[in-house]
Design brief:
Strand 6 and strand 7 form a beta hairpin. With 533 residues, this protein is α/β, with parallel strands linked by helices. It has 3 domains: 264 residues, Rossmann fold; 157 residues, no CATH class; 57 residues, no CATH class. The strands form 3 sheets. The protein has a 7-stranded mixed β-sheet, sandwiched between helices. The protein is globular. The chain starts with 12 loop residues before the first strand and ends in a 5-residue tail after the last helix.
C-alpha cells in the first residue's frame, strides 16, 4: 500500500492495513482494509469473504489483541505478547497515520529504534513517537451471536477500556442467551435519553415490521405475597426471615437472601420497595391471565411515556429481580400477537439484539467487527443487511467509523457500494493441508485476486457467486446467460475471435465437474479453438 497518502483524507478512524509475518494463527499475510481511491467521508465497510476455516474470526481476534498490546504499552505496562510473530498494524485517526509494529527490518523500522524497546515501536506520520502519544478509537465493538466466536473476553474493563464485547459468552468458556437478553434490556434502559439511539430503534422496528410494540416485561414470583396490594414492611421481612431459618447454618445460602441482608441495612430501602410493589398493583401494571398467580409487568418502549416510565422504575425493578421477587427481564416483539424475543425467529432475535447493542455502544471514530451476521437470517434479509446497517448509522457522526464484516454468504455483498467499501477474498493456501500443520514461514491463507475497487451494488446473487466466489454452476443464471452469448458468437461466425473470452472459458472448464454437461460443451469449444490439447 502506498505510504504517501493525503492525511486529510482519513477523517475519523480507519483501519488501513495489517501485515503479519509468521503469525501463530494466520501465518504470513497482508490485509488491505481500505481502497485509497474511495470516499472515506461516509461510514466505511470492509467485507472479508471466504469459506469456513480461512481465518476470518482469528483475524478479528488478532486485531483486537494488537490494540490491547498497544494500550498496555501506552499505560507503561509493556507488551502482553498475545500476538506471536511479527506484525505491522496501520490505522488513521483524525488525520494522523499510526503504525504499530515489531518488524525488525532496516527498510521499515525507524532509525533510532532499539530492539530492547519492548520489541515494538510506534510511528505517527512517519516519525517515531512514545507509546503514550497514541490515541485510540472511541469504541472497538465486537459483535457476534455465535457461542464459538473467537473474540477475546477480558476479565476487566481496564485491560482495554474502549473495547465492547457484544456476544453471548460471559467468560471465554461460558455462554448464556439469558444474560445476553438482560444486557440488551440494560442497553435499552440506559440509552433512553439518546435521540440517536431512539431513531435507530425506530428504523429497526420498521425493518422487522414490529411497529406496534416492543415490550420489556418482568414476571412476578410469589405474586400473592408481594403483589396483592396490601404488602407492608413486616410481611416483606417475614418472607426473608423464613428463608433465613431454612438455610441457617448452611454453607451456601441463596443469592437472593444475601442480597436482602445487604439491602436490609440500607435505611428506608425496604420501605421504598414495599411502596413500589403496592404502586405497581394500584396502577394496574401487574397483569394476570385468568386465575394465574403469575403476573407480568410490561413496558412498551415504542411508547415514549412507557419508555420513560421504564427508566424511572429500572433500578427498583433490578433490585426486585435480585431479591427473587421478579424474573429476569425478557423482550417481546409484536406483529399483532405478542411473543417473547426468545420465542421469535432466530433471525429476528439475532438482528434485534445485535442492533440494540450496536446502537448503544458505537460512537464516532469507532471500529466495529461483525462476525458472520448471516447466521439465522433469511436470504432476503442477508441481501438487505449491509444496506440496513449503513442506513442505521447514516448520521454524520458515524461516518467517521469503520465496519469490518466477516462472512461466507454471497447474498451479503450483493448491495455493497464500491466507493465506500472494500471486499477482501480469502482462501486456504493449501486445500490439502491444515493450517496447523504448515510451517511458520509458509502461507496459511491467501487473498483471492478480486478486481480492484470492485462494486457489487445491484448485483444478483448469481453474479456475486461467479465474479467474487468463482463458483459457477449449471443452475447459475448469470453463467448460463454469459456462456450463451459466447456460444452464439462461436456459432454465427465462421472464424470467431474468442481470445477475449479465453480466461473465462478456461476458468469455467477447470472449476466445473467433469460430469457436468456444461463442462463438456466448454471443452468441445476450447478444443476446437486449439486451447486444449
Amino acid at each position: 500500500m502506498n505510504e504517501t497518502v493525503d492525511l486529510f483524507k482519513y477523517n475519523g478512524f480507519k483501519l488501513i492495513n495489517l501485515e503479519l509475518i509468521e503469525n501463530k494463527l494466520l501465518g504470513t499475510i497482508t490485509y488491505d482494509f481500505i481502497d485509497e481511491i474511495d470516499d472515506e467521508g461516509h461510514i466505511y465497510t470492509t467485507v472479508i469473504i471466504g469459506p469456513n476455516g480461512t481465518g476470518k474470526s482469528n483475524l478479528f481476534r488478532t486485531i483486537i489483541e494488537l490494540f490491547r498490546e498497544l494500550y498496555s504499552l501506552r499505560e507503561g505496562k509493556g507488551r502482553v505478547y498475545q500476538v506471536k510473530g511479527r506484525f505491522k498494524l496501520k490505522f488513521s485517526l483524525n488525520g494522523d497515520i499510526y503504525i504499530f509494529s515489531n518488524v525488525d527490518d532496516p527498510k521499515t523500522r525507524p532509525v533510532n529504534y532499539k530492539k530492547s524497546d519492548n520489541n515494538a515501536y510506534l510511528l505517527r506520520n512517519g516519525e517515531l513517537v512514545p507509546f503514550k502519544e497514541v490515541f485510540f478509537p472511541l469504541a472497538i465493538v465486537a459483535n457476534s451471536l455465535m457461542i464459538t466466536d473467537k473474540y477475546p473476553v477480558f476479565a476487566r474493563e481496564d485491560i482495554l477500556p474502549c473495547y465492547k464485547y457484544l456476544g453471548v459468552r460471559n467468560t471465554p468458556q461460558n455462554a448464556s442467551t439469558r444474560s445476553y437478553v438482560r444486557k440488551t434490556v440494560d442497553f435499552i434502559i440506559s440509552n433512553q435519553d439518546s435521540d440517536a439511539f431512539k431513531a435507530g430503534l425506530k428504523k429497526t422496528t420498521e425493518f422487522l415490521g414490529v411497529n406496534e410494540a416492543i415490550e420489556i416485561y418482568y414476571s412476578t414470583i410469589n405474586g400473592n405475597v408481594f403483589f396483592n396490594g396490601k404488602l407492608d414492611v413486616e410481611k416483606f421481612r417475614k418472607h426473608y426471615d423464613n428463608i433465613n431459618e431454612r438455610y441457617l447454618g448452611k454453607e451456601y445460602p441463596p443469592q437472593k437472601l444475601n442480597y436482602y441482608n445487604r439491602l436490609s441495612n440500607n435505611d428506608g430501602k425496604i420501605e421504598e420497595l414495599v411502596d413500589f410493589c403496592n404502586r405497581l398493583v394500584e396502577e394496574k401494571c401487574v397483569i394476570r391471565k385468568g386465575d394465574s398467580t403469575i403476573g407480568r409487568i410490561t413496558y412498551n418502549i415504542i411508547s415514549s411515556t412507557s419508555y420513560s416510565k421504564l427508566k424511572q422504575d429500572g433500578d427498583l425493578l433490578e433490585e426486585l429481580r435480585q431479591l427473587g421477587i421478579l424474573t429476569a427481564p425478557d423482550i417481546s416483539l409484536n406483529k399483532g400477537d405478542s411473543y417473547a424475543l426468545a420465542e421469535s425467529s432466530s433471525g429476528e432475535y439475532h438482528l434485534f439484539s445485535s442492533v440494540v447493542g450496536l446502537l448503544a455502544t458505537l460512537r464516532m471514530n469507532s471500529l466495529l467487527f461483525i462476525d458472520e451476521p448471516e447466521n439465522s437470517l433469511h436470504p432476503n434479509w442477508q441481501m438487505k443487511y449491509l444496506s440496513f446497517i449503513r442506513t442505521l448509522f447514516s448520521d454524520k457522526n458515524y461516518g467517521t467509523s469503520h465496519i469490518i464484516v466477516a462472512t461466507h454468504s454471497h447474498f451479503l455483498i450483493s448491495d455493497l457500494k464500491g466507493d465506500s467499501s472494500r471486499i477482501i477474498g480469502l482462501k486456504r493456501a493449501d486445500e490439502q493441508t491444515t493450517s496447523h500443520s504448515l510451517a511458520n514461514n509458509e502461507k496459511r491463507y491467501e487473498l483471492v485476486d478480486l478486481p480492484y475497487n470492485i462494486d457489487t451494488y445491484g448485483w444478483s446473487a448469481e453474479q456475486v457467486l461467479l465474479n467474487v466466489f468463482e463458483v459457477p454452476t449449471t443452475r447459475n443464471f448469470y453463467v448460463a446467460e454469459r456462456l450463451s452469448q459466447i456460444f452464439k458468437i462461436a456459432a454465427n461466425i465462421k472464424n470467431p475471435d474468442l481470445s477475449q473470452y479465453k480466461s473465462e472459458l478456461m476458468m469455467w472448464h477447470k472449476r466445473l465437474q467433469s460430469n457436468d454437461p456444461l463442462h463438456y460443451t466448454i471443452e468441445q469449444l476450447i478444443k476446437r479453438l486449439g486451447w486444449l490439447v
